[in-house]
User: What shape does this take?
Amino acid sequence: MKKNQKISVEQLEVGTFIRLPISWKDHPFLFSSFKIKDTVQIELIKGLGLKDVFFDPDKSDIEPVTSDTADVSAPNQQTIDARKEQMLSQKSAQIDEQQKLKRDLKKTEQQFNRSVSMMHSMVAKIGSRPLNSVIEAKDLISNMTTMLLNSDNLALHLMADAKNDEHIYHHSLNVAMLCMLMAKELGWNRQEVETIGMGALFHDIGKLKIPSNILNKRVPLTTPEENFIKQHPLMSINFLKLADNFPEEAKPLIANHHEFLDGSGYPQGLKADKIDKLSQLIAVINEYDNLCNGTNQIKPKPPSIALGLLYKNYKNKLNAEYISKLIKLLGVYPPGSIIELSSGQFALVMSVNLQHLLCPNIVVYDQLVPKDLAPIISLQQEGLTIVRSLPAAALPEKIHKYLNPREQISLGIGQS
Assistant: This one.
């Protein structure tokens, strides 16, 4: 049987997965594609004035009857009307909630973009006005710390794609925000939260001293080129010598953000007893963000795969407690993850409610809903579950374009 075969509404049975051939606005269901749960839904579909719907056998529990004589004991009209009123009310409330979520996402994205602009300004001033640069950075980190410490209602959001020439700034902000969020979760004091934030903001500034033809090289690096790039942590420290008001306690984590506990890191090959806790934390977060976004030499990994790789492959290299805490913090499906739902639909994780990690907010692919109107759905409210995570490359092209998984993962922290 072909997928999406047209069948009569009189053939519908509980357990059939169907797609309604009308606008999302013209029916009371939250999705245009869904599995029929009960006979009331069947009667509501008949009440839409449709003769036919599309049937998907791969996602159905049962075949439709072969004639227009489905043996369905119809519920009474009062039950049908009550369900329709309830569904329309819920859909209206859901649309309002989705609009609020979208406004919150937009606000967070604007804040993130302002922070990127501030970073541009701060880095540009390091050479000419280093004291001003550090003062601005301290203000930024202080404001972020106040928000983190004073709010129990945070969400981690997926931001817009980073432009190629802004990757270093997006990466630095990602690492700073996740480090500070982790420091809060680990119970560190305000000074430690601000210290790791300052260090993370400037940890890769030394890369600006590396010629772009080496930094952006897409073929394998030569050994001298690789060794040169491995000096960027120390280049960052040298950069900051111009600013004598940069906090001394933040410098070790800049120098050590590529050091591993077993001594296999760089540039100094330090072992665990020589690496302080702030350096150990930034090493975990830096590695995670690099796995998500990749390099010119390494393809980016889906966020859930990146977390799995950290857990499996870095046990002797990175602090295991911090890895476990990161997994718990982000949930199994971090922002940017492509997932398949229990309904058989595909979705993109847009934000993780840090109070309900297993119920992220998602955008679901529905070909009858225009992309720019695609609702942000709360799994917690809809009672859907996640079946699996999958790479964006596994999606059919039309679904990939609709969901538009980010080529580079950038995160923002906002109110949930």
Remarks:
- The chain is about 45% helix and 10% strand.
- The radius of gyration is 25 Å.
- The chain has a mean pLDDT of 87.
- The first helix runs from residue 39 to 46.
